[in-house]
Amino acid sequence: METVILAVVIAVVVLGALGGLIVGSRRRKPLPPPPPKAPDITAPPAEPHVGEEAETPRDEPRRTIEEVDLPGGPAVVVEEPPAAEAPELEIEVPEPTAGRLVRLRARLSRSQNALGKGLLTLLSREHLDEDTWEEIEDTLLTADVGVQPTQELVERLRERVKVLGTRTPEELRGLLREELLNLVGTDLDRTVKTEPEGRKPGIVMVVGVNGTGKTTTTGKLARVLVADGRTVVLGAADTFRAAAADQLQTWGERVGAHTVRGPEAGDPASVAFDAVKEGKEMGVDVVLIDTAGRLHTKTGLMDELGKVKRVVEKHAPLDEVLLVLDATTGQNGLVQARVFAEVVDITGIVLTKLDGTAKGGIVVAVQRELGVPVKLVGLGEGADDLAPFEPEAFVDALIGD
């Protein structure tokens, strides 16, 4: 009996041991990895819908600005940058007019080949026969001196050369200089009249054909007057040419001169009238009136120029009427001058472009044609290239050193 109980106990112990071994071995095996966790996917924002698919807006509580609590402390003031001021136009100081033609002598001397040097070369020949005198005459005519002045000069040269006999280069130059000065005229009053007695301002009207540089000459004349210490008002009565008033105003601003202008295609006589009126109110010395370029073959346009003159003279008489001529046009310029003189009583001539291909003889011819002097000459494109005409400097430039 005891033996049976002992065998049962042993069997139970053996089974328990075997069971513990099996459980331990199972615990030592690695566990399989856990399944991957599904990632969180953020849904894309819903596309907006329109029309019938649009959602009805939800009523959400909103707060007004009075209900919002602002942080304490002083309010922050944002300063706006100051507005940029337009730069002031610098007033220019023109060159003094005294001796200006002498300083521009090199430019003027470009026209000496046809007249001055040509005559000196011919007069220097040992024998002055009829053929030589004909060449001298042709040289003067080619230089736009004109028929009558040419004949007078040739006759005087014939007499003086015959009396002189032997001719040295210095004697010929002196002889020719003297005769050309007589031809140009040294006794003419070439002053631009801008100082009438007992009143202000002096009134100057500038006339001429399109393309002669009339508006530019008016602006340069303002510089001449300012350089001589005068105050100026400009009247932009050229209302038919696009940008003419702008051009004249720019010239005026450069020297501090006020410009009176009107609407484009407006009445030029009205602008001229207002310019003189404002000039009187401002107490300036001179009013310069730039008129529209006139074709001398158009009767209606020339009549209107006469109207401008009559309207201006309701204030005061014109002190100067300056005709601007292109020196390169030669004899055609004389035709223009004749027609203008019939309409507005020209008192002086301004010759432009005298430094290029122009021939110096046009100075003589235009004075003979109109009976009025050349008062100003333009010798280039520079702002201070308008000079008072000086006969001595002009002739010296023609014959050279």
TrEMBL record:
Residues 373-386 form the SRP54-type proteins GTP-binding domain. It is found in: Cell membrane; Cytoplasm. Its EC number is 3.6.5.4. Residues 24-63 are annotated as: Disordered. Transmembrane segments: none annotated. It is a peripheral membrane protein. Coiled coil: none annotated. Residues 49-63 have a biased composition (Basic and acidic residues). The keyword Protease does not apply. PANTHER family: SIGNAL RECOGNITION PARTICLE RECEPTOR SUBUNIT ALPHA. Involved in targeting and insertion of nascent membrane proteins into the cytoplasmic membrane. Acts as a receptor for the complex formed by the signal recognition particle (SRP) and the ribosome-nascent chain (RNC). This is Signal recognition particle receptor FtsY. The lineage of its organism: Bacteria, Bacillati, Actinomycetota, Actinomycetes, Kitasatosporales.
